[in-house]
Amino acid sequence: MIKNEREYRITKAQAEKFERAVAELSAGDGDPSLHPLLKKAQREGIQSQLEELQEQLAEYDALRLGRWSVISLDSLEEFPQALIKARIAAGLTQRELAERLGLKEQQIQRYEATEYASADLARLNEIARALKIRVREDIFLGAAEEPSGELLTHLRDLVRQAVAAYRKDI
Q1: What is the per-residue pLDDT across 55-106, written as a single tens digit (0 to 9) for each?
Q2: Hey, is 163 helix, strand or coil?
Q3: CA–CA distance, 64 with 91 (Å, rounded to integer)
Q4: What is this structure's pTM?
Q5: Which CATH architecture has domain 68-137?
């Protein structure tokens, strides 16, 4: 996951290197003594890495351009990444978030580098408030499934959000 502009520039440069490598391998450049199956595996491996970098770049671009309005989580373990995504979607740098919280930029950098491992719940709540995000919690006890009425309400909410996002893109 790309967390800031510096990482974005580095990832973009790496993607460009992989693009050149794939082009060279596709053009038949490279070690002529290498078995064709090894060449194919090499090209596919580099192509796979390139696609992963491109997905990360696209996600960061979508966040920066405000194309995300909802971040869905399957567990609390995903909350730190959601905070990072929310900061990016809000158009805030790490420095600007730190200023809102009365912290040093380096503290936000450390939090995000470790995905908030050292932050307590009070700090996470403070960060969520500074980002002006709303969190809707669902807690499923044991192996209980979501009751059908709640499921329908949830699906309606998702459809409304999808329609709103679609209209925003038009």
Answers
A1: 999 999 999 998 888 888 888 889 999 999 999 999 999 999 999 999 999 9
A2: helix
A3: 6
A4: 0.73
A5: Orthogonal Bundle (1.10)
